[in-house]
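Lecture 7 notes: from sequence to structure.
We start with the chain below.
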Amino acid sequence: MTQVFYLSGTSLTVPADYNPANNTWEALSGGGSGAASQSGAGTPHATGGGASPYVALNNFNVAASATVNIQIGAAGTAVASVAGSAVNGNAGTDTWLNKTTNAAPSSTTDGLLVKAGQGGLNAAGNTNGGAAGATGSCVGDVITAGGRGGNLSGASGTGASGGGGAAGPNGTGGNGVDSSSTGTGVSTAGGTADGGTIAGGTVGNNGNPGTAWDATHGPGSGGGGRDNATPAGSGGNYGSGGGGVHWLNNACTSGAGKQGIIALTYTPFSGSLFFSNPMNGMGVGGPFFRDRMAGM
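Predicted structure tokens for the same chain:
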């Protein structure tokens, strides 16, 4: 098996030995950042950002060496609160792949689409975490929900919640930890990632990077929220949400989300496995057969 990771750019070149009958494309969008607030703004709850769903596309029919349009979802950038202000977190952006046009696809014939996590929110009292990417608007053969930022449902008090964890091949992303406390100084941890295989970021600390595809690539967990200190934890690579931050009378900075990724895993095409008469190109396994197969 061969694995390739795409982390930037507006197009990719399909590998020359790509096998259109044995491949999996997996993707995550950008995660949202947490909100930032000072109590003087009248919004003493700041919640974490939402994370990416997981989308997989199996045996995508595209020709070897073809150019395919892509967008790698950007992370929601951290926000800062200065004297008496409250700032909602920033959303990430979508990740997509499309072999036909330079836009997000509407069907799996053309590619895949992963919707982005949303930024955390500020409010007094009951405050929802940033929403995870909308699974109902994703395009793929497999779609698994990411985690939202933690909810702070106390009618009063101050606090900041953790960001959501990204979904992955092993399961859903965990929500940032909720709290119903009406006390002050509440801080909660980030959500787990990839079906609970990656622990969430602890209070005030960054989320953990994913390892689903290799030692450094996979769905990451959410950053921890932080109250009465700064900054909050950023998400872990890839696709996770950042933690929210609140500080009574001081400037503070939320945790950033993490960018998206496209991962391709395939069994290289080998003409010798289908050998007939490659010299004239017409046999099974010859170039004529491969071109026809990729174009079907």
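Points to note: The helical segments are 287-295. The radius of gyration is 21 Å.
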